[in-house]
Specification:
Elements lengths: L1 H13 L1 H32 L18 H8 L10 E2 L14 H21 L2 E6 L4 E4 L12 H7 L5 E6 L18 E11 L2 E10 L4 H7 L1 H41 L13 H52 L5 H33 L8 E2 H14 L3 E5 L4 E2 L3 H19 L9 E9 L2 E8 L29 H11 L3 E5 L6 E7 L12
Parallel strand pairs: 1-4, 8-10
Antiparallel strand pairs: 2-3, 2-6, 4-5, 5-6, 7-9, 10-11, 11-13, 12-13
Helix pairs in contact: 2-4, 7-8, 8-9, 9-12, 10-11, 11-12
Length: 524
């Protein structure tokens, strides 16, 4: 209903249809004025034949006359632009006698005017060159219309004059079905009549245009049928759209409820609309991510329990031996048990710190606009590795990353620690050669860390980013360093990958150059 009412309301507010009715009335009055002007000239020729010198010049081009061109190119009246004038003044009595020839023409045309008026519904007056009425369908014969604005303009030389005027209240009818029109407007058209020796007089026509109520009433049954058809079409359209939208939405709701109970949701086969399809796909991705997250938590808990079980068992065994046989054990055995306790305690402490770092990486969200210089972080981080005997080559230029400095330092430290554990002679970095390079394009930065170690076997390449997976457990490896690297990168919409290299290991980290919320993308 609202959609159907919008164009009708707009047309009503702009008075487009009323302006069209007024313009139609104006055109009809102009056509009648032209006919009566021609009738006056014909009667003038009958009563006073013109000499050749007095005749109006013919159009040598054989086309339209200048007067006809003026009538065809005239601007029409518009309710939205043109002012509505007050009702016209009454015809004023005058002591002047009308032109005798004009009076004779008026007497000759009066019967025709009276016969035409019931059909045309137009008020018609003929005036002489001074504005005195020489023939009329009313009661103002012999009175002057020179005070009327539009008549004065034509008598002064204007080719045509039109005006919109208000009607007196007593002239209007309140009933839509009556013959009298209830419109409060009246259209006036004044056209000059050229005689043999100049301006002979003017044709003054006026009529009330059809109003909206009369126009609608005249075609009420056709309009009623149209309204019923539009309402029926609108109802069918609304029902179709409702079915098109609500049924897929109900399926999406059922899909969400199924996913909440632990089921695996799937995208709708016939979503109906693109928005519902996007909603269903997003719900499917969310359910898959939640399921993946749940599986990750289960596997993570199992891995944590397994990683903690070994050092805890060592601690318990060493503590029981010391408790039961501490007084009788030799000094070297007691020292061995104390070293086992210290090593396992150190491993547990390292595991706890790594787990905290992984949790912070999973939950990390930098501030908007964070941008850290890679060279500044490396300048503060590398001296400790160089002291251990690691040779580090740097080519990062002025690249930046969208991570806080401490977080990015932890990310690089995890990569360098990984290189020190696998590419050095002592597991601390001695003899290892590492290259750190970076490049930026658009709003993304890629950091590459390459070492000259033995590399990673094809069997282990797919597992190196899994939590607790390590091949250096005997030297204190926890298997969490690379998991922390990937979690940090994905936390800001980046990625961490292992690239193929001829020798050693090559890791590529993709990060935003400056972190913005719209850079976030879901992890794979």
């Amino acid at each position: 209903m609202a959609v159907l009412a919008l164009p009708i309301t707009a047309l009503w507010a702009m008075r487009v249809y009323e302006s069209a009715l007024v313009g139609q009335t104006e055109d009809e009055l102009v056509a009648q004025a032209v006919v009566w002007s021609a009738a006056v000239r014909a009667e003038l020729s009958r009563l006073s034949p013109a000499t050749p010198a007095q005749r109006l010049p013919a159009n040598p081009a054989g086309g339209l006359s200048p007067a006809a061109v003026t009538l065809l190119s005239r601007p029409g009246v518009d309710l939205a632009i043109d002012p509505v004038l007050p009702p016209p003044p009454d015809a004023a009595p005058t002591g002047l006698a009308p032109d005798p020839l004009a009076s004779a023409i008026g007497r000759a045309l009066s019967p025709m005017m009276q016969d035409a008026q019931p059909v045309t519904l137009s008020a018609l007056r003929l005036t002489d060159a001074h504005g005195i009425v020489i023939a009329t369908t009313g009661k103002d014969l012999g009175k002057s219309l020179a005070d009327w604005q539009e008549v004065a303009r034509v008598l002064a030389g204007a080719p045509i004059a039109t005006a919109l005027r208000r009607r007196e209240p007593w002239e209007m009818s309140d009933s839509v079905g009556t013959f009298s029109r209830p419109s409060e407007l009246r259209v006036f058209v004044v056209l000059p009549v050229q005689g043999n020796a100049g301006l002979l007089g003017a044709v003054v026509l006026s009529r009330t245009p059809r109003d909206m109520g009369h126009a609608v009433w005249a075609r009420r049954w056709a309009l009623a049928a149209l309204v019923v058809s539009l309402l029926a079409a609108g109802g069918l359209l609304a029902a179709g759209l409702s079915r098109l939208v609500t049924r897929p939405l109900a399926t999406v709701v059922a899909q969400a409820q199924f996913a909440a109970l632990g089921g695996q949701a799937a995208p709708l086969r016939r979503p109906g609309t693109r928005e519902v399809a996007d909603l269903s796909a997003a719900l499917t991705r969310m359910a898959a991510m939640l399921d993946q997250r749940a599986r990750y938590i289960i596997a993570f808990a199992a891995s944590v329990s397994h990683e903690f079980k070994t050092p805890l068992a060592g601690l318990r065994g060493a503590a029981e031996l010391l408790e039961d046989h501490g007084d009788t054990l030799p000094a070297d055995e007691r020292s061995k048990l104390l070293r086992i306790i210290a090593n396992n305690t150190q491993r547990l402490d390292q595991l706890v710190r790594r787990l905290l770092a992984l949790a912070r990486a999973d939950m990390m969200r930098p501030g908007v606009g964070s941008a850290t210089s890679i060279s500044d972080v490396l300048a503060a981080l590398l001296p400790s590795y160089v002291e251990r005997g690691m040779a580090v080559s740097v080519d990062v230029g002025t690249c930046t990353v969208g991570l806080p400095a401490d977080a990015f330092s932890a990310l690089l430290a995890s990569l360098l620690d990984n290189a020190a554990a696998h590419a050095s002679d002592d597991g601390r970095g001695s003899g290892a050669r590492v290259t750190v390079s970076a490049r930026s394009h658009g709003r993304r930065t890629w950091i590459t860390v390459t070492d000259d170690g033995p590399g990673i076997s094809p069997a282990n390449r797919g597992r190196i980013f899994e939590p607790f997976f390590t091949t250096a457990r005997g030297t204190g490896g926890t298997g969490l360093g690379l998991s922390i690297v990937r979690a940090m990168a994905q936390g800001v919409g980046g990625a961490a990958d292992l690239l193929t290299s001829d020798h050693g290991a090559c890791f590529c980290i993709e990060l935003p150059s400056e972190w913005l919320p719209q850079d976030m993308r879901l992890p794979p």
